[in-house]
Amino acid sequence: DLATWAHHWLDEVYRLTGRRAAITSYPAFWSGPMANNTTFGDYPLWIARYGTPSPYPLLAGWDDWTWWQTGQDTEPGIVGQVDQNLFNGNLNFLARYGAVSSPYPTSPIGRYEAATVAGMDEITVSGWALDADTQDPITVDVWVDGVLADTVDADEFRWDVGLFFWIWGAEHGFSTRLEGLAPGTHNVCVWAHNTGPGIDVDMGCKSVTMPTGPPVGSLELVGWRPSGWQIDGWALDPDTAAAVQVDVVVDGVVAHSVTADGARPDVGAFFPDWGPDHGFSFRYWGTPGPHELCVVARGVAPGGDTTLGCRSLTTPGPNPVGGLLLVTNTPNGGAGSQLRVVGWALDPDNGASLPITVTVDGVPSATATADIDIPVLGHFFTGFGSRHGFDLTANLAPGAHEVCVIAHNVGTGADTTLGCGTQTG
C-alpha cells in the first residue's frame, strides 16, 4: 500500500544520507490514502492546515509539528500566490536543517553479486560499486584465498544502478574472469577503493567450488570385428584438460592401455573448456574363450578411477568359423553322382573372403571362394560384411566316398573342417 511504499522510500533516504526527510501532508489525505498510519512520527511534520488558529489536531502519529502551512498569499517580487508557512522553533534550530556538509555516504557503496564457475579452472566475479564523492569509476580488488587476484575498474554500464543513482550515472558495474584456480573450494572476496573522504569498503566474500572428482565418460561400443574387439568411447577428468589413460581390464587384470586423446567434437561441444580430444577407439584381441572385460578411465588425483562399463563376452579363436547350409547328392545316370555343397565361412582375424575346398577321400575335388552375399551374415558379424557364402559342386565316381569341406585360414591359426561325411557316387 501507499504507506508501506512511502516508509520504504523514506527509510532508504535516511540510510543513504543520515537525514530524515520532512513529510508534508494534510488531514484529509492522511486519514484517506494513508489510513491514519501512526508509524511516521520520527520524521519532521510539515502540516498543511488553512484557516485555523493552530495546526492542531495533528496528523496521526505526531505529537509535535515542525512546519505549518497556514495558507497562500502574495509576496513582494513574486508573481502569483505562494504558500505561507510558520516554523516551530528559532533560527538556530532552523539552521540545523541546512547544516549538512555532505548528504551522502563518504565511503564506497555497492553490491558484490556473484562469483560463479566459468570453466575448468575459471570463475567470473561481478557486481557494482560507486563512491558518492565522485562520478568517476572507482577500482575494485578481487582476492582469492587471501591473495590479490585482480584489480578492475567499476566502469561497466548498469542501467539499474543508473536508474537509482542517477546523479552518478550508470557506469559503475564491474566483472572479471579469473583463471588458474585449482580444483576444490575457494574464498573469493571483493574490496571497493575509496575516493576522497572515507575508507575502503569490504564488500564481502563468497565461496566457489571448482570442478573436481573422478573421470566421466562413456563406453559406447564393445563389438567383435576383424582382428579383435572394437572398443569405442570417451573419457575426461574434471581436474585436467589433458587426455587420461584408459585401461582394458580382463578378468581383473589390466590387459591393454590407451590414451583417450582422439578427436570427439561432440564431447568438446559439451565440455568446451576441456576440448574435444578425449575419445578412444581401438581393437583388442585377447585370448580365446569367455571373459569379463571392463574399461576403466584412470583419474588424476583427487577423485580416483571410473569404470566406464563391463561386458561378459567370448573371444573367438583365430581359426575360420562357418557352417554347411545345404548338401545334395544327385545321381548322374549310373556314372556316379554330382555333389552340391552350400555354406558360409569367415576368418575372425581377417574380413577377406576365404578359399573353400571340397576333398573326396582326402584329395581336393573342387575349390571356390566364399564370396557369395548372404545378408544375414553382415548383421550377425558386424564389420565383416556379408559376402562370405559359397556354393560349389564336385563329381563323385561310383561307390562310397569320404567327403570333407575345408575353410582355409588366413593369417594366424589353422584351417577349419566345416564338415565330413560319407557320400555314394
What this model shows, in words?
- There is one protein chain.
- With 425 residues, this protein is mostly beta strands.
- The protein has 4 domains: 2-95, Alpha-Beta Barrel (TIM Barrel), CATH 3.20.20; 109-210, Immunoglobulin-like; 216-315, Immunoglobulin-like (Sandwich), CATH 2.60.40; 321-424, Immunoglobulin-like (Sandwich).
- The chain has 6 helices and 28 strands.
- It has helices spanning 2-17, 27-31, 91-95, 159-164, 265-270, 375-380; strands at 23-25, 45-48, 67-74, 81-87, 109-117, 123-130, 139-144, 147-153, 156-157, 171-178, 184-192, 201-210, 216-225, 228-236, 245-250, 253-259, 262-263, 277-284, 289-297, 306-315, 321-331, 337-346, 355-360, 363-369, 372-373, 387-396, 400-407, 416-424.
- The strands form 7 sheets. Strands 1-2-3-4 form a 4-stranded mixed β-sheet. A 4-stranded antiparallel β-sheet has the order 5-6-10-9.
- A hairpin with a 2-residue loop joins β23 (355-360) and β24.
